[in-house]
Specification:
single chain; about 375 residues; mainly alpha
C-alpha cells in the first residue's frame, strides 16, 4: 500500500508526461502532420477503401504506440472520419478502428498508456527493466493488435469493399513546421524505446515544438486545447483509490484475483482487470488491483492486458473512449452507445483472451 508521498512521487511524472505529450500532439495536429498522413494514406490506397482502412489501422497503431492512446482518440479520429467521408466510405468503421486500437494497441511501450507508466515502478521492484518490459509485452501487444483488426474486419468487411476517387490534399500548411514536427515525433519514438524517462523526453520535445511554432506560425498557438480537467480528474481518481485501499479494499481484491501464473490464473487477472476498467475507468482499476498482482511480472502484465485492451465496452472505460466520443460528436457522427457496448464486448472478449493466452505462452 502506498503512502501519499509515494503516490505523488509515482503520479507526478506521469501527469507531466500526459500534459507534455498532449502538447506535442496538438502542435503536430496544428502543423498539419496528421492531415498530411491521412492524405498520403488515401493516395497510397489507390482508390480501394479496404486498403485505405488498413492504412488507417497502421496510423492508429503507430500513433497509439508512440504518442499514447489519448493522441489517437483525440487527433486521429476526426482525421479518419473526414477522410472516410471525402472518399464516400462509411465513417463508422473508421471511427471504431481508432477507438478500439487506441486502447488495444497501447501495450507495447510504457508511454502508450498511463497504466503502463504506473506499472514501471512495480516492474522495477521485480527486477524488470524497460527493455525487459518490451520483451515481455512484445508478443502480447502484437496479438492484441491482430485480434482487434480481425474482429473489425469481420464486422465491417462488407462496408469496406468499395472504391473511391483520391481526394485533394488538405488546406496548405507550413511545410517546414510540418517536417520539424515529424522529425521530433521520430526522435521521441527513439527516446521512448531507448528507455529514457518519458517525462524527460516529452517535456523538451514539447518546449522545442512550442518555440518552433511560435517562430513559424504563432497564430496556431491559440488553437491548442489542453486536458486540464482530465488531469484534475485523474488526480482525484488516484486519491480516491488510495483511500479505498487504506480502508481495506486491497485484502478483498486479493481474494478475487487469486494466485499463480498459469494460463487460467492470468485469464482471471486480465478478466477482472477488464471488468473493473469498464466499471470504474482503467486508471483507478489498475491502481486498485496493482498491489494484488505485484508478486510476478506475468501477473502484472496480465493486469495491463485487462485494463488496457478491455475497457472498450462502456463509454467511461478509459479517458481515451470519453475523448473519442466527444470528437465523434464534434465531427457530426452519431454514436450509438448500445452498439458500441455490444461490439465492444465481442472485441474485448476476443482480444483480452487471445492476448492473455499469448502472454501465458511467452512470459
Amino acid at each position: 500500500m502506498l503512502d501519499l508521498a509515494q503516490l505523488v512521487d509515482r503520479v507526478a511524472p506521469i501527469l507531466v508526461f500526459l500534459v507534455a505529450i498532449t502538447l506535442v500532439a496538438e502542435l503536430c495536429d496544428q502543423a498539419g502532420l496528421f492531415d498530411e498522413a491521412a492524405h498520403w494514406a488515401a493516395r497510397l490506397a489507390r482508390g480501394r477503401v479496404a486498403v485505405l482502412w488498413l492504412l488507417v489501422v497502421a496510423l492508429a497503431v503507430v500513433s497509439t504506440v508512440v504518442l499514447s492512446l489519448d493522441t489517437t482518440a483525440v487527433l486521429l479520429t476526426p482525421v479518419a472520419v473526414t477522410v472516410a467521408r471525402q472518399v464516400g466510405a462509411p465513417a463508422l468503421p473508421f471511427a471504431m478502428t481508432t477507438l478500439w486500437l487506441a486502447n488495444t494497441a497501447s501495450l507495447l511501450l510504457p508511454v502508450s498508456n498511463l497504466t503502463n507508466l504506473l506499472s514501471l515502478h512495480p516492474f522495477a521492484a521485480l527486477g524488470v527493466s524497460t527493455w525487459g518490459y518490451l520483451r515481455l509485452m512484445a508478443a502480447p501487444a502484437l496479438a492484441a493488435i491482430l485480434a482487434t483488426v480481425a474482429v473489425l474486419w469481420l464486422l465491417h468487411r462488407t462496408q469496406l469493399r468499395s472504391r473511391y476517387e483520391t481526394p485533394p490534399r488538405a488546406e496548405p500548411h507550413d511545410h517546414l513546421l510540418m517536417v520539424i514536427t515529424a522529425w521530433t515525433c521520430g526522435a521521441l519514438a527513439v527516446a521512448f524505446v531507448s528507455g529514457l524517462q518519458p517525462a524527460l523526453a516529452s517535456v523538451p520535445a514539447a518546449l522545442f515544438l512550442l518555440a518552433v511554432t511560435y517562430w513559424r506560425a504563432p497564430e496556431l498557438l491559440r488553437r491548442i486545447k489542453m486536458p486540464w480537467l482530465t488531469v484534475m480528474g485523474i488526480c482525484i481518481l488516484f486519491l480516491v483509490v488510495d483511500a479505498a485501499l487504506r480502508a481495506g479494499l486491497e485484502e478483498w481484491l486479493r481474494t478475487l484475483v487469486g494466485e499463480g501464473t498459469t494460463a487460467t490464473a492470468l485469464l482471471r487477472v486480465s478478466g477482472l482487470g477488464a471488468l473493473a476498467a469498464n466499471g470504474i475507468n482503467n486508471l483507478p482499476a489498475y491502481l486498485a488491483l496493482e498491489p494484488t498482482v505485484a508478486d510476478a511480472p506475468a501477473r502484472l502484465a496480465a493486469l495491463l492486458v485487462g485494463v488496457n485492451t478491455g475497457p472498450i465496452v462502456t463509454m467511461w472505460g478509459s479517458v481515451a473512449t470519453l475523448l473519442w466520443a466527444q470528437r465523434c460528436r464534434s465531427a457530426g457522427l452519431t454514436v450509438d452507445a448500445g452498439r458500441v457496448a455490444r461490439t465492444g464486448l465481442l472485441c474485448a472478449v476476443v482480444v483480452v483472451g487471445a492476448t492473455t493466452l499469448t502472454l501465458a505462452a511467452t512470459a
